[in-house]
Design brief:
By secondary structure, the chain is an alpha/beta fold. It folds into three domains: 4-58; 67-198, Leucine Dehydrogenase, chain A, domain 1 (Rossmann fold, 3-Layer(aba) Sandwich); 219-375, 3-Layer(aba) Sandwich (Rossmann fold), CATH 3.40.50.720. The chain has 18 helices and 13 strands. Strands 1-2-4-3-5 form a five-stranded mixed sheet. α6 (111-127) crosses α18 and α11 (285-294) packs across α12 (299-306). The radius of gyration is 21 Å and the shape is globular. The structure holds glutamic acid. Glutamic acid (GLU) is lined by residues 100-102, 174, 176, 204, 356, 384-385, 388.
Length: 456
């Protein structure tokens, strides 16, 4: 397909105007605008091929959440002082299934952040091929330095409002940054207490033994590594013996490192907001898990206790470390244009997003122009939410599958997501562009469902 036909130019201009309207309508939401722009930039071919989607204004509809809930969360800290936070849940799109997406507890959370995450979630969830719509929520509550009792009281206060908007067939939250097994437990307990229902499918990421799925904890990281392997396979390579850098040190980063090591890679780094660790011998994951999951400590503690092979570095960035494969697994916009140039100079072959939107648009352009295989989070980190959907299936059937079964299903889902993104990019003349492939495939699935369901 020639890339600059008259229709395509018109479509591009129309998409740019649409983007401007969306930006004017919701000022002060830069992350949301970034996420929308990144999708709109890749959709021209589908609007050219299918003008009915433009006429039905499907993209305008998708960019507008079906419902947005903002609420006050009041709770008491350990000193008996009153604390006030803000709660969010953006129910973005339910064309394919109940709203599905995590809750993020972090002081940076605001409506624009929740909307960027929710918007991405629509396409990500569509790509899994499973029956889940898109949503996201959270709070500006900062769990760092808070006691278990404070976290529990916060979660209870948060759920006291949120419960009326949830349901296993309506809206199903899970974890994200700052929300792990402990928080899901407190949230589930309060939901159950208020509603008097054992409704396991209302939250995912639950504990094994009370409705949780095997492999859910590992799924996002494992999934990203499986996706990376698929990208490498297309190039006739695998992870064996590759130098891998990982950013972050939460759930996604830890299980990314674990799977990469299992596939024979040499995993060198982890990081947090204070700095990063480079461990030339390869990470000791048992030690890292003890420090992060049990003690809720910092990566500087890891460097201290690991001894000789590990150095803790403040200032600079984990992307200063040359590697074959880079797996950003911390947070949005953590890998900049300068970082991408560094990685390319260091000979990187693949970059794949474990976090949501960790690579800035300028950095993505640098990587793609240099011929680096780039896996966008929407596709590459979809293993987490896909396994949440498997948890919902198990809950609905009141059963639980063994670890190996869930892991096998996850591997199948990641392969399908890779192939769908790859083949869709090919079909639309964007060969090797996983960003375009993921956006086009996710968009088409949601758009078709919306068209079939009338004016919704
Ligand atoms: N927060 C994760 C994501 O970004 C998981 C969401 C879920 O399991 O619902 O996809």
């Amino acid at each position: 397909m020639p890339s600059t036909t008259t229709t395509e130019r018109t479509t591009t201009a129309w998409l740019a105007a649409l983007e401007q309207r969306i930006e004017r309508r919701d000022p002060g939401e830069p992350e949301f605008h970034q996420a929308v722009r990144e999708v709109l930039e890749t959709l021209a071919p589908v609007f050219d091929a299918r003008p009915e989607l433009r006429e039905a204004r499907v993209m305008e509809r998708i960019a507008e959440p079906e419902r947005q809930i903002l609420f006050r969360v009041v709770w008491q800290d350990d000193q008996g002082r009153t604390q006030v936070n803000r709660g969010f849940r953006v129910e973005f799109n339910s064309a394919l299934g109940p709203y599905k997406g995590g809750l993020r507890f972090h002081p940076s959370v605001n409506l624009g952040i929740v909307k960027f995450l929710g918007f991405e979630q629509i396409f990500k969830n569509a790509l899994t091929g499973l029956g889940i719509g898109g949503g996201k929520g959270g709070s500006d509550f900062d769990p760092r330095g808070r006691s278990d009792a404070e976290v529990m009281r916060f979660c209870q206060a948060f759920m006291t409002e949120l419960h009326r908007h949830l349901g296993e067939n309506t809206d199903v939250p899970a974890g994200d940054i700052g929300v792990g097994g402990r928080e899901i437990g407190y949230l589930f307990g309060q939901y159950r207490r208020i509603t008097n229902r054992w409704e396991a499918g209302v939250l995912t990421g639950k504990g094994i033994g009370w409705g949780g799925s095997q492999t859910r904890t590992e799924a996002t990281g494992y999934g990203n590594v499986l996706f990376t392997s698929e990208m490498l396979k297309v190039r006739g390579e695998d992870l064996e013996g590759q130098r891998v850098t990982v950013s972050g040190s939460g759930n996604v980063a830890i299980y990314t490192a674990e799977k990469a090591q299992a596939l024979g890679a040499h995993v060198l780094t982890v990081s947090d907001s204070g700095g990063y660790v480079i461990d030339e011998k390869g990470l000791d994951l048992e030690l890292l898990k003890q420090i992060k999951e049990v003690e809720r400590g910092r990566v500087s503690d890891y460097a201290e206790r690991r001894g000789g092979s590990a150095r803790y570095i403040t200032g600079g960035s984990v992307w200063d470390v040359p590697s074959d494969v880079a797996l950003p697994s911390a947070t949005q916009n953590e890998l900049t244009e300068a970082d991408a140039l560094n990685l390319v100079r260091g000979g990187v072959k693949a970059v794949s997003e474990g976090a949501n939107m960790p690579t800035t648009p300028e950095a993505v352009r640098v990587l793609q122009a240099a011929g680096v295989a780039f896996g966008p989070g929407k596709a590459a980190n979809a293993g987490g939410v896909a396994t949440s959907a498997l948890e919902m299936s198990q809950n609905a059937a009141r059963t639980s599958w063994p670890f190996e079964r869930v892991e096998e299903e996850l591997a199948g889902v990641m392969r399908r997501i890779h192939d769908t993104a790859y083949e869709t990019a090919e079909r639309y003349g964007r060969s090797g562009d996983y960003v375009a492939g993921a956006n086009l495939a996710g968009f088409e699935r949601v758009a078709d469902a919306m068209l079939a369901q009338g004016l919704i």
